[in-house]
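stage 2 :: seqdesign
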């Protein structure tokens, strides 16, 4: 019985994937799953569909899109000057949550790269995404940013894709919850030394081990505009979010207790516990960085719908493995305590 049900589900999914491929080929936009977050896709050869991504997301046109494809051999179709270090990395981590930036080939249009001569490339590790890309065939790719409005939380399940996005695409292809749950790690190979542009699904030290080389960290937090009144620009939930060190959090809770806010506290250390007190809700987060990253967006999406006045987050450990989580919390927060 269970086997029949899963075969039926797989057939349904195959039909959906074929339909999604047809839509892309006819110049439509779709939302599709990857192992990191859901993407808002267009066939790279349909410039109208590519341009529509920026309209749907309300994203500035000079923000480049990642090119997703299925076959490692095709890397030299999309990029040139591929260094041996870049090759080593993709051979180790593709398919997987790694995007590399390389000089673009003539096959990548400038509308994809925001006018730059470089391109971001990735082979995603999700069976639905891979089937979709394989149906499209060689010398084809799907360009996609995360399927959220500019400045908002990335979706890690089909249900997280907002009405504003889903109403403007031809299909939302449901591939279940994303197994990584944070965006890909981005490494640029466009300078003499490799650079980390965004921490993500693969920890930096794992990358440095494979490269046998230090990677320069150049994370850009400029799109986190924290000035009052610029809340719409956050990479964030709608609910105001504050991140406090363990000691400062206690104090902040006391302060807010006097002000009757509906508050939720996400903690990870044993200083707090879920049974705790009063009218504030305490939720335990995983104390492992990979698990924490996996649950973070899903938790924030859920809490956003519950309409709390404020989310307080206990600062996770200041250790290298937590870099991606710290980065996302910094972007999402209205307040990020400086220790
Ligand atoms: O996990 C992911 O990477 C997801 C899934 C859908 O693949 N995609 C994603 O896309 O997070 P997006 O557009 O939300 O973030 C991609 C980041 C942007 O910050 C963009 O500026 C950077 O990648 N990027 C893309 N191409 C680039 C390039 N040529 N040079 C520098 N940065 C680039
Ligand atoms: Mg994004």
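stage 2 :: out
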């Amino acid at each position: 019985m269970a086997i029949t049900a899963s075969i039926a589900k797989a057939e349904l999914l195959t039909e959906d994937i074929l339909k999604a491929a047809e839509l892309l080929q006819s110049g439509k936009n779709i939302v599709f799953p990857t192992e990191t977050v859901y993407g808002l896709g267009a066939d790279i050869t349909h410039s109208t569909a590519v341009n529509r991504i920026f309209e749907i997301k309300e994203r500035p046109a000079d923000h480049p899109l990642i090119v997703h494809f299925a076959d490692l051999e095709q890397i030299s179709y999309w990029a040139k000057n591929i260094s041996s270090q870049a090759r080593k990395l993709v051979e180790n981590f593709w398919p997987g949550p790694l995007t590399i930036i390389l000089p673009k080939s003539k096959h990548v249009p400038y509308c994809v790269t925001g006018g730059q001569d470089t391109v971001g490339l990735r082979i995603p590790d999700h069976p639905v995404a891979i089937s979709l890309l394989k149906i499209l065939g060689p010398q084809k790719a799907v360009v996609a940013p995360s399927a959220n409005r500019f400045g908002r939380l990335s979706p890690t399940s089909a249900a997280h894709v907002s009405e504003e996005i889903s109403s403007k695409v031809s299909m939302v292809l449901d591939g279940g919850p994303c197994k990584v749950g944070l965006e890909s790690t981005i490494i640029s190979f466009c300078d003499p030394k490799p650079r980390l542009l965004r921490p993500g699904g693969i920890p930096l030290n794992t990358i440095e081990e494979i490269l046998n080389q230090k990677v320069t960290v150049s994370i850009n937090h400029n799109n986190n505009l924290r000035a009052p009144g610029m809340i719409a620009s956050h990479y964030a939930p709608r609910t105001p979010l504050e991140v406090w060190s363990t000691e400062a959090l206690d104090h902040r809770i006391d302060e807010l207790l006097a002000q009757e806010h509906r508050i939720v506290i996400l903690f990870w250390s044993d200083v707090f516990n879920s049974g705790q007190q009063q009218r504030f809700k305490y939720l335990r987060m995983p104390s492992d960085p990979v698990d924490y990253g996996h649950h973070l967006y899903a938790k924030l999406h859920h809490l956003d719908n519950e309409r709390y006045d404020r989310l307080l987050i206990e600062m996770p450990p200041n250790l290298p493995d937590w870099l991606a989580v710290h980065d996302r919390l910094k972007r999402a927060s209205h307040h990020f305590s400086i220790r």
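stage 3 :: structure notes
- Residues 145-146, 154 surround magnesium ion (ligand 2) (CB under 6 Å).
- The CA atoms of residues 208 and 214 lie 6 Å apart.
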